[in-house]
Structure formats: C-alpha cells, structure tokens
Specification:
Keywords: Cell membrane, Cell projection, Cilium, Flagellum, Membrane, Protein transport, Transmembrane, Transmembrane helix, Transport. It comes from Geoalkalibacter ferrihydriticus DSM 17813. By secondary structure, the chain is mainly α. It has helices at residues 2-15, 18-56, 63-81, 85-117, 122-177. The protein has one domain (1-57, 75-177). It contains 5 helices and no strands. The mean pLDDT is 90.
C-alpha cells in the first residue's frame, strides 16, 4: 500500500505543481459525472413519475394554458437532466490546457538547465522533460475519459426530454378529446 502511495507521490513530483491542479479538476469532473448518472438512474424516474401523476389528474380545460404549462414542465426537466453537462464540458476543456501549462513550465525548466549547465547535465534536463510531458499526458487522459461520459449524458438527457414531451403531449390530446 505504501509503495503505491509513494509511486503516486513520485509521479506527481515528476509532473510538477500543475499535476495538483489537474487532480483537483479531475476530482470535480468525476464527481459531477457520477452525480449526473445518479440523477438519471435514481432521481429522474421518481420526478418523472410524480409529473405523470400530476398530468393524469389535470382537470383544466384551457388547451392554450395546458400547452404553456407543458412547455414549462419540459423546460424544467431539460434543465434538470442537462444541468451540469456544460460544467463537465468546461472541465474537459480545462484539463488539456492545464497539461499545456505543465508543458510550458517544464520546457522553461529545461531551458534554465541548458542556460546554466549547458548540455552537460542530462539528469537535470530529464527532470524538466518529464515535468513537460507528464502533465500533458495526464490532462489528455482525464479529458478523453470524461468526454465519452459527457456525450453520453447529453444524449441521455436529450432522449429523456423528448420522451417526456411525448408523454405529456399524449395527456394533452386525451384531455382535449374529453
């Protein structure tokens, strides 16, 4: 256990201070992704069931007013389903940029070593090169892994909104026939 923690600590030290920023953004990103899936799997079915019960018991007869209420309910559902997707995509965009920042700081360290020692200290240059490459790789890995799930959440939210609009439209048609 301590060996893995030590290896992770060395990985973060080799990547420089930017690795901690990538870690923070990664934790925030995955927390939001897990929260969104939790909402889709646990919360949304309950909310949609309550909405269906409210619409089954509707007795108002004004079709214009019912359509406006339907639009409001669908808009609210869309907002609930897609609420954090924009923030998730912002974090996905931020990760490669943080990796690029790590590349720049690592290259600055390499140039400092070259300016001070010339090419006579390859060990010091290797430290700067690893500081330049590890954050880039880490930022890209976090961004690519989050990208798949953000697209999936967007697709699920759009599909569920469409289904909810269809279900509420069926209730409206039934109410107008009465």
């Amino acid at each position: 256990m301590f060996e893995q923690i030590y290896a992770i600590r060395q990985f973060f030290d080799a990547g420089g201070q930017v690795m901690w920023a990538i870690l923070f953004v990664s934790i925030a990103l995955w927390t939001l992704i897990i929260e969104r899936y939790w909402y889709h799997w646990r919360i949304y079915p309950q909310e949609f069931g309550q909405l269906r019960k409210r619409w089954e018991g509707r007795t108002d007869c004004d079709p214009w007013q019912a359509r406006k209420i339907q639009e409001q309910e669908i808009s609210h559902l869309r907002h609930q389903l897609l609420g954090s997707v924009f923030l998730i995509r912002t974090f996905i965009t931020l990760c490669p940029l943080l990796g690029l920042l790590g590349t720049v700081t690592g290259m600055i360290q390499v140039f400092d070593v070259l300016g001070f020692h010339g090419t006579g200290n390859p060990r010091a240059m290797a430290s700067g090169v690893s500081m330049a490459t590890i954050p880039t790789m880490s930022g890209l890995v976090v961004a690519l892994s989050g990208l798949y799930f953000s697209i999936d959440l967007q697709r699920r939210g759009t599909a569920k909104t469409r289904v909810a609009a269809d279900v509420l439209s069926q209730y409206l048609v039934k109410a107008e026939k009465k």
